[in-house]
Amino acid sequence: MNKLQKISIGSEEWCSLANLGIPAIVSRIDSGAKTSSIHAFNIQPYKKEKVSWVSFEVHPLQEDRRTVVRCEAEVIDRREVKSSSGASERRYVISTELNLGGATWEIELTLANRDSMGYRMLLGREAMKNRITIDPSESFLWGNIPEEEIQKKYVKIKKTTSGLKIALLASNPSLYSNERLLLAGEERGHDMTFLNITQCFMKLDADDPEVHNRGGKVIHGLDAIIPRIRPSLTFYGAALTRHFESMGIYSLNNSQSITQSRDKLFSLQLLLKNGLEIPTTGFANSPIDTEDLINMVGGAPLIIKLLEGTQGTGVVLAETKKAAESVINAFKSLKANLLVQEFVKEADNKDIRCFVVNGKVIASIMREAAPGEFRANVHRGATTKSIKITAQERTMAIKSVKVLGLDVAGVDIIRSNKGPLLLEVNSSPGLEGIEAATGKDIAREVIIAIEKKLGWKIPSES
After folding, report:
1. Helix (H) or strand (E) run with residue 71 in it
2. 233, exposed or middle or buried, with CB in 10 Å at 0-12, 13-18, 19+?
3. How confident is the model at residue 90 (pLDDT cuts 50, 70, 90)?
4. Is the predicted pLDDT of residue 380 greater than 60, yes or no?
5. Which fold has domain 3-154?
6. DSSP SS3 for 349
7. How is the beta sheet containing 210-213 ordered, strand by strand?
8. Which of 137, 115, 111 is nearest to 29 (CA)?
9. Which of 57, 219, 272, 451 has the fewest Cβ atoms nearer than 10 Å?
10. What's the CATH fold of domain 346-453?
11. Interior CA angle at 296 toward 291 and 297, to 5°?
12. Where are the domains of the chain?
């Protein structure tokens, strides 16, 4: 194609990849990137007549994780590619036909998880060479496809479910973490159901135990449940989880491990018993012992924690002895159980969140509290970034989860002059912050953990 035959495009355009069965996908046009890429997951390499092929799935539409196209292509290379975050990863490379602006030509695509990116596809300069001129001030120079037409293009791509039947046991289906887990399960081919804890009730019967949903509908046929129980519902949620377990249904985090992790005092005692370091902590029953309790942890400043609090609620930094006495006595007058903890100044208002799945740390981030906020409130306007943890911190995170008997957990650690100190193990860790900071599909890893426990595998490609 000579210079006069080049097509002019904007900064984003609709295109199609007919050989992959993708009739329409928006591509980000990026001359700053050498390589083109497409969002791919469930990437499975295999051999076809001794030639390397790869099968994968694609979400072709932005902000739509329910439309899935299953693709396969010959592997032409495996290449080291540096992402926009600076991280380097080894990706499969395929070759396929691109149709854009009425022209069709062969391009190379790397398969990458672009779920945290705004676009499902990126067109790099290698694919544009001698074929395209870009007007970065324009978009969709070749037309913007109406929503109704997009849906018609994908109407023949039907969702087939041949996987497990998994229920998410929680309170709010619209929470980011809950939505992500439900969608991740669907992506893996599972039948996902949301069960509201408060709308379930139990039939205790030796021969025929049951769980009913509001309206009297019996819940049956489940292979697994994912309990994500808010603190105020710990007693009932754990009892409900225990009842599912008695019916032979696998629970990702069993009822006993959830109960242990939610009891802050008991969990700290278990962790200490197993050789895990925590900040010096004190607990007392009577306001009469307040002064001794404060001195026990090294005096002010110190941390005061309600045993029933979570995600930073019920946690106070008392900067003076007088302030500490006032807060402790106020809580005690309300008959609230609390503990006090030394303030680790060198932690510098930062902590580390490690996400542990099936005995492995799959992601870790550093969280720094917003100016004027205390570290315990890092989820409020905090800054987060992906970090590489030390071997000691990794061991601490894995061991703490094992001690409490959890399959999935968020482990909070601070760095002190005497090494890492364990703050808390959360049995219902949030996904939003850690997925955004690391770009990793944490929800998918949680679903895979269930598959491994139950010995389920994605049906092999023909």
Report:
1. strand 69-82
2. middle
3. confident
4. no
5. Cathepsin D, subunit A; domain 1 (2.40.70)
6. coil
7. 200-203, 210-213, 217-219
8. 137
9. 272
10. D-amino Acid Aminotransferase; Chain A, domain 1 (3.30.470)
11. 110
12. 3-154, 165-261, 280-343, 346-453
Helices vs strands, H then E, count in the chain = 11, 27
CB atoms within 10 A of CB 74: 12
**Residue of 371, 369, 363, 362 lying closest to 384 (CA atoms):** 369
Count of beta carbons in the 10 Å neighbourhood of residue 345: 10
Looking at the whole model, is its pTM more than 0.90?
no
Angle at 373 between CA 86 and CA 362, to 5 degrees: 35
What residues pair up with 107 in beta bridges, in sequence order? 96
Give the C-alpha separation, 231 to 258, whole Å: 10
Of 279, 338, 252, 354, residue with least CA distance to 271? 279
Could you read off the pLDDT of 23-56 as tens digits, one per residue?
999 999 998 888 899 988 778 888 888 889 998 8
Span 165-261: which CATH code? 3.40.50.20
Torsion of CA 401, 405, 408, 409, to 10 degrees: -40
**Contact 39/120 with Cβ under 8 angstroms?**
yes
* Angle in degrees, CA 85, 87, 92, rounded to 5: 115
In contact, 369 and 350? CB cutoff 8 Å: yes
Domains 165-261 and 346-453 alike in fold: no
DSSP string, 170-207: ES-TTSHHHHHHHHHHHHTT-EEEEEEGGGEEEE--SS
């955004």: which residue's tokens? 436
CB 95 within 8 A of CB 107: yes
* Tokens matching residue 207: 């021969």
Rounded CA separation 43/198 (Å): 38
Hey, what are 349's tokens?
């208002």
Write the CATH number of the domain with boundaries 280-343: 3.30.1490.20
- Report the distance separating Cα 329 and Cα 288, nearest Å: 9
Rounded-to-integer distance, Cα 212 and Cα 328, Å: 43
- Classify strands 22-29 and 121-123 as parallel, antiparallel or unpaired: parallel
Distance of alpha carbon 155 from alpha carbon 147, whole angstroms: 12
CA 318 to CA 69: how far, in whole Å? 55
Q: What is the pLDDT of residues 405-439, one digit of tens each?
A: 999 999 999 999 989 999 999 999 999 999 988 88
- Strand 191-196's sheet: what is its strand order? 191-196, 165-170, 224-227, 250-251
Compute how many other C-beta atoms are within 10 angstroms of the C-beta atom of residue 330: 13
Q: Is the peptide bond before 301 cis (omega within 30 degrees of 0)?
A: yes
